[in-house]
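A reminder from the course coordinator: this example appears on the midterm review sheet, so study it carefully.

Given structure:
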């Protein structure tokens, strides 16, 4: 049994940290690509707390993709939010199906990060947004968290903001990294499909 199967109740509780103010800020970053009625994919979206807030704030349709049934079972059943079982590295979606991908506190859990970024580029339309919210592993507290995750069998594959931007650029998504509160930072990139005009 994997970490998220047994730890789901704890992780679900932690996922309730998003406020309406957080959602408004995140929605503002996505707005250039997501009009009302647009489509967002929340990869590793867990129990869907952020998905619900984004669906309400942007009047968008949000799909939560996650491999852990103990998380997905708690995604509210309501209009505008859909739960789908699957992994970031091999998504069950058509090319260019979404206007934006959001990944919150999940990218460091993906076992094939380059493979997941290829999937972001495939399922997001040309000119769509990739937003990754992550934790900077610099500093004693974060180094202990990385060690703890590794001891629990998770990849703990964290990047600093500069490393994340360089990694995403190498994988074909140009964007910017900006530090937020405490160890949180965001990567905000735009998908450019070769031969297509955004
Ligand atoms: C710390 S939780 C974050 C949940 C939510 N995004 C949030 O911000 O509260 C990480 C989530 O990533 C999911 N996850 C782990 N490996 C994954 C993978 N390869 N593809 C997609 N999701 C994955 C886990 O099941 C878990 O729900």
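Designed residues:
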């Amino acid at each position: 049994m994997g970490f998220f199967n047994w730890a789901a109740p704890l992780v679900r509780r932690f996922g309730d940290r998003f406020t309406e103010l957080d959602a408004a800020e995140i929605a503002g970053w996505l707005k250039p690509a997501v009009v009302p009625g647009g489509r967002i994919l929340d990869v590793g979206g867990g129990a869907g707390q952020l998905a619900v807030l984004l669906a309400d704030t942007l009047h968008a349709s949000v799909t939560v993709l996650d491999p852990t049934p103990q998380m997905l079972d708690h995604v509210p059943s309501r209009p505008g939010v859909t739960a789908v079982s699957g992994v970031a590295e091999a998504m069950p979606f058509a090319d260019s199906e979404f206007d934006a991908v959001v990944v919150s506190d999940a990218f460091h859990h993906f076992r094939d990060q380059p493979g997941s970024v290829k999937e972001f580029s495939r399922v997001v339309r040309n000119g769509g947004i990739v937003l990754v919210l992550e934790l900077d592993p610099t500093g004693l507290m974060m180094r202990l968290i990385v060690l703890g995750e590794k001891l629990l069998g998770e990849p703990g594959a964290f990047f600093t903001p500069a490393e994340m931007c360089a990694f995403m650029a190498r994988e074909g998504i140009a964007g910017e990294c900006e530090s937020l509160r405490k160890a949180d930072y965001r990567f905000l990139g735009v998908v450019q499909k070769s031969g297509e005009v955004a």
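Residues 3-14 form the longest helix (12 residues). Residues 4, 11, 15, 43-46, 50, 66-68, 71, 87-89, 104-106, 109-110 surround S-adenosylmethionine (CB under 6 Å).
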